[in-house]
Design a protein that fits this description.
Elements lengths: L1 H45 L6 H23 L7 H41 L4 H11 L4 H13 L4 H11 L3 H16 L3 H25 L1 H24 L5 H5 L1 H25 L4
Helix pairs in contact: 2-3, 3-4, 3-8, 4-5, 5-6, 6-7, 7-8, 9-11
């Protein structure tokens, strides 16, 4: 029975290697966990969600577990229930990124008016920092929240150029980056900052106008992409409601689950490609 001895030897070797490697693996895991927690906390604070990332992770884990039991209760199939957390893991981060992107777009839409007002105040004789403080209080949300954060940095002793540079890091857009570069160049080389700010505001307005015009012209193509992607799903739902015995094998057998998964994958790829075709960068 030599194979029993060989099997025991392999098991002892694996156990010894596991005991030796476990502390190192655990240390690497703890280090990576701290990095992920720090990055998650920074992302949440950038989105003005002042909550603990670990608490949010625990809450999200409970949502995933609840989604499994909910889908199990709705479908009656334990294997099909594990699709629910996968869907949640895909949909929730995309939704969060979409909300953050919309907020950034709103800030960038309000930015040309703020820059124009800043140029007018500078031309009227106000100092740039004083004008920035007064206009930041009068601005509307969400730009006001970003500018108030710049004001807090100014009260801590950070220069105006660095505060605007931090704003461009939080909202990486051409408008914020050009504003930060304009203030920095004016601080180093001098000159009439009001003329630079007026030209910058005009350029940003023209860019926003072109972006909205292109978005309007491509709206039909985007709508067609969503409609074509929704047609097979609507047909499947209609057949399931009108003739459930015809679609029973599609929802209750492994072959049907495989076909459904293939349909979802192909639909996602096709929708992504059609949306990419419809998007035109200005």
């Amino acid at each position: 029975m030599w194979w029993i001895g060989a099997l025991l030897g392999v098991m002892v070797a694996v156990a010894a290697f596991t005991m030796m490697a476990a502390p190192k693996v655990w240390g690497v895991f703890e280090q990576k966990k701290k990095q992920v927690d720090a990055q998650s906390q920074a992302v949440l604070e950038a989105a003005y969600w002042f909550v603990d990332a670990r608490v949010l992770a625990l809450f999200f884990s409970l949502i995933l577990l609840f989604s499994v039991f909910l889908w199990w209760w709705l479908t009656g199939n334990v294997w099909l229930a594990w699709i629910a957390p996968i869907v949640v893991l895909v949909v929730v981060p995309r939704t969060m990124r979409g909300l953050q992107k919309k907020r950034h777009l709103r800030v960038c839409t309000q930015l040309p008016d703020f820059i124009q007002s800043l140029a007018a105040a500078s031309r009227a004789g106000l100092g740039l920092q004083v004008a920035f403080q007064q206009l930041a209080i009068q601005s509307k949300s969400p730009l006001r929240a970003e500018l108030e954060l710049c004001l807090r940095e100014l009260r801590l002793g950070i220069g105006l150029e660095q505060a605007v540079m931090n704003l461009s890091n939080r909202i990486p857009h051409e408008g914020t980056q050009l504003l930060a570069a304009s203030l920095e160049v004016s601080q180093r080389c001098g000159g009439r900052i009001s003329d630079v700010l007026e030209r910058l505001a005009h350029s940003l307005r023209m860019r926003l106008y072109l972006e909205e015009k292109v978005k309007t012209l491509t709206a039909q193509a985007s709508l067609q992409a969503w409609v074509m992607a929704a047609i097979p799903l609507l047909i499947a739902a209609a057949l399931s409601w009108m003739q459930p015995e015809l679609m029973q094998s599609f929802w209750s057998e492994p072959i049907g689950w495989g076909v459904a998964a293939l349909i979802v994958i192909l639909e996602s790829i096709g929708l992504h490609m059609m949306r990419k075709i419809a998007q035109i960068r200005v």
